[in-house]
Specification:
Elements (H helix, E strand, L loop, with lengths): L21 H26 L3 H18 L8 E3 L4 H7 L5 H28 L1 H4 L5 H23 L3 H17 L3 H4 L1 H15 L6 H5 L14 H5 L5 H11 L2 H20 L4 H22 L5 E3 L1 H10 L4 H15 L2 H8 L3 H25 L7 H18 L6 E5 L2 E5 L1 H15 L30
Antiparallel strand pairs: 1-2, 3-4
Helix pairs in contact: 1-2, 1-9, 1-15, 1-16, 2-14, 2-16, 3-4, 3-12, 4-12, 4-13, 4-14, 6-13, 6-18, 6-19, 6-20, 7-9, 7-18, 13-14, 13-15, 19-20
Length: about 450
């Protein structure tokens, strides 16, 4: 019975909402697109992927997620920050030919979601989550942010004044902002820094003038499919990309669960039970795999849009689907994408400096809020090995652990090694005490976005 599946948390559920007029739906749709926009387009700027491609598959991925989750969950899928470390490990200088291999690794990571979804369906979330407790996922997330820190500083060094504008605006909006200002600090930081750079003559707008108004969002040569059709596929790099990037999915899957918990708390319906985490994970995973195959970043459920739900009290998933359609529409405008792509490196550096630091801080928060007991030796050992391996190997001379298997040279990144060691140690060592509550979703969880939307109090 549908009523029995509701989890009331002090917010009227979507079934009690009055019908919305077409005008209000359109305004709300633009508001949701506005909320996700800054974070979503930042990922392709940091990695070298296509902005247009990103918008297209953020929209298509969101629609696919809604179909698989039975049109019940008001979630938007935007670009995932967690996979930045994977893209930069495979294509450190944004080489197009290497980005295709990174996308292959991310596509495989998306398929891991389907494995976890099947386990949830078969054994229940509480039993499976014992193998992915905060003592494992927290240190992994801390290391994701710290491993990215070098690139943020290098971008800032191109023009510190422009970078500082972005940093100050993001910090001010996060700490003192109200309403929508607090939800979209990335976008406001980008706009302020971008305008300062334009006024000082730092930006070359020639590519914008030359760009067409209408065009296809992606090109075949940038897709994963082109690796296998050009006849020059690098088997070693394919395997290494999978080994490097796949473990990151353990953190992003926990992020997904945290986001679904937050949406459940906001709307007042337990989406963890209905339509179920097995469906939402499947939708998120397939959206990530499809986007990656076509050269777009990995997708993830967005906390920014949860913040908009909190502000507006309108929980109709139709509004989210409209925002997805608007993103798809804008993806067919190369001139619009070009305006974003000419953004100066210093602006990107300023935003990413705050972002990468906050990713690490979220890992710390996840450990603190779940009350991980560090008086237990097992927890200290697990966290210590994850962090030392993840960071130490990354900054070693080789930058990875290299193994020769059957004539192939396979590279294990620091993050991959640390993640796998942490998961195995947690499974082997006695004393697992983490319990995942399916009946009472709460705000505690992984949120790799810079937005404070989840904690907004109205």
């Amino acid at each position: 019975m549908a009523e029995e599946k509701k989890l009331r948390m002090g917010v009227d559920p979507i079934y009690d909402a009055r019908p919305l007029g077409k005008g209000k739906i359109l305004v709300l749709g633009f508001q949701h697109m506005f909320a996700m926009f800054g974070a979503t387009v930042l990922v392709p700027l940091l990695t070298g992927l296509s902005v247009s491609d990103t918008l297209l598959f953020a929209g298509l991925g969101t629609l696919l997620f809604h179909v698989i989750s039975k049109f019940k969950v008001p979630a938007f899928l935007g670009s995932s920050f967690a996979f930045l470390a994977g893209y930069m490990a495979i294509a450190p200088n944004q080489e197009p030919e290497l980005l295709r291999y990174a996308c292959f690794g991310v596509a495989c990571a998306g398929l891991v979601y389907l494995v976890l979804a099947a386990l949830f369906k078969s054994f229940g979330a509480a039993r499976v989550m014992k193998f992915f407790p905060p003592i494992v996922t927290g240190p992994i997330i801390i290391c994701i942010g710290l491993n990215l820190s070098k690139s943020a500083i290098e971008n800032c060094e191109t023009n510190w004044p422009i970078a500082l504008v972005a940093i100050f605006v993001v910090v001010i909006c996060n700490v003192w902002g109200k309403g929508m200002v607090k939800i979209i600090p990335i976008l406001l930081g980008v706009i302020a820094s971008y305008l300062c750079a334009a006024a000082s003559g730092v930006i070359d707008f020639t590519p914008v003038k030359e760009a067409a108004w209408i065009g296809l969002p992606f090109h075949y040569e940038n897709t994963v499919f082109s690796i296998f059709t050009d006849g020059n596929a690098d088997t070693e790099l394919l395997i290494s990309s999978v080994i490097t990037i796949l473990p990151i999915s353990f953190a992003t899957m926990m992020e997904h669960i945290g986001d679904i918990s937050a949406i459940s708390s906001t709307v007042g319906i337990n989406y963890i039970k209905d339509p179920g985490l097995h469906r939402t994970l499947t939708g998120d995973g397939l959206a990530t795999t499809v986007a990656s195959l076509f050269g777009a970043p990995a997708n993830t459920t967005y906390g920014e849009n949860t913040g908009v739900l909190t502000l507006t009290k309108v929980y109709d998933p139709m509004v989210i689907r409209l925002a997805a359609c608007l993103a798809i529409l804008f993806s067919f405008c190369p001139k619009f994408a070009s305006v974003i792509e000419v953004m100066p490196s210093a602006t990107i550096g300023g935003i990413s400096m705050v972002l990468y630091g906050m990713i690490s801080a979220v890992g710390v928060r996840n450990i603190v809020e779940t009350k991980v007991d560090f008086s237990k030796s097992r927890n200290v050992i697990i966290a210590a090995l994850i962090m030392v391996l993840s960071i130490g190997i990354n900054y070693s001379t080789a930058g990875a652990l290299n193994f020769h298997i059957g004539g192939l040279n396979i590279a294990f990144s620091g993050l991959a090694t640390g993640s796998l060691v942490g998961i195995l140690l947690n499974a082997i060592l006695p004393g697992k005490d983490y319990h995942f509550d399916e009946e009472g979703p709460n705000h505690t969880g992984v949120d790799l976005e810079i937005s404070q939307g989840k904690s907004l109090e109205m």
